[in-house]
Amino acid sequence: MRRHSLSPWLNRCGCVLLLLAAAFLRSDLSYRTPFVDEAINMYEGWRVLNGQTTHVMKFHMGYFPFSCLPLGLAGWVGGVVYARALNAVWGVLTVWVVMMAARRLYGSIAGYVAGAMFAVFAPAIAVSTLATYDSLSILFTSIAVYLWIEAALQGKDRMYVLGSLAMTLAVLVKYSAVMVAVATVAYGTVAAIRRASAYTGGRSPGRRIRVDGGVLRESVAAASPFVLLVLYALVYRGQLLQVWQGQILVKQSSDPEALREILKLLARYLWLPALLALPALLSRERRALSSGLLAVALAMVPYHLANRDSITLWKHTCYMLVGLAPLAAGGLACLAGLLRRWLPRLNQSIANGVLALIVVGYTGLTGQEMLFGLRSFWPDASELIPFLRAQVTQGDVLLMEGGAVGKYYLVEKGSPGHIPEEIFDTWWYEDEHGQGVEAYKRAIGAQRFDLVVFDYAFTPDLDRDLLALMQGSYEARASFPARVFGEYGTVDVFKPIR
Length: 498
Description:
This protein is α/β, with parallel strands linked by helices and 498 residues long. It folds into two domains: 8-200 and 208-374, no CATH class; 384-496, D-Maltodextrin-Binding Protein, domain 2 (3-Layer(aba) Sandwich), CATH 3.40.190. Helices cover 63% and strands 9% of the residues. It contains 21 helices and nine strands. The protein has a five-stranded mixed sheet, covered by helices on one side.
């Protein structure tokens, strides 16, 4: 695999243009009202910043000072656009880091290809324009991979420490990143054992492990920051168990087609970079580091196959692409080299450029088609929110499917005289006699809710039961469009008949 370099000024111009393109693709930040996940992060972060105790301090998929607090502050200052903009910055920086990692291994042109692939990748655009903490976790993951590559190439122990520290932060921001940490630790252990082993001759040839000071120092340096994760897990074991039971195990699908759906989605998102990665893996040059990138690329697959979770797969493909994009760029360089052998008169730079344009162009075009669906997971409340702001009076109690959106707009961003006392969600409600469906029914029968809002997207069975009970005691006041997965549904608003 031949490594190609460009002149310094071309490198600088190319880097700036690539980052500007990545920023442009992430510039649409007001495309809809917040998703429920976004609203939870901003609202609960705002509450913590205001000194209130909230469930995110314990029941959350990340350590809240790193996860929801930055988003809560951004949302408090400038609304959802500011929170999304913060993540867009993390997304653009990730493009740069991925580019630098590929460049360090396979040359300048490969760096641009890897960065461009990440820049136009639909899930990466979607994640970095959502007010969730995935984007920051992915950035730290990419920094960890880059620093480990630098450590291996330069032989500097402190780079291993910094890389593992970045990976530790990635896990604390979003617990899902622990899969990448485990995969890289497993690969690093195997690689260290192989380096420390040697064949012996004589009557009983075999393989023995010898103590190598350099390998030992590197292993200790790389492993030491992960002790922080072990200590964190011991201190917060109760909360982590609660998160495991409430946010991971509940996503397990009993659908017999779940595994097929996961494989189909993986193929849909990653078939092209996976195919392009093969030449880089088969090449002898940088094989150890290429195999390390493969470990990163495959890290999330066991979780989804074991848990049968296809819901969060699209987000996790971004972690996978941190390893896969540089590999694909290296494989593309190998293909260009093969073309050069077959067509000696062909300029390899031109071959690289043509192949890169085809691959990046295809990824970008198909990505724009996917992006609409990725941004339509939760119902859009663009028409609903102005109506609720006008209808709600001080001290009202609301029942709202996707109630976190209402809390963000009507409580955190509410205007004086129109701030409800409480907004309950259709996922959980409790009264003085208990919780669950019966508690909802008692509240409906007593007309305790001043407004009821259904979008029929995530608790349709409960919605139907409550609608039957509302006959004669609640009346429909308004209906608004609810776009879910690009299809049109409705959001209905009911008020009690007094």
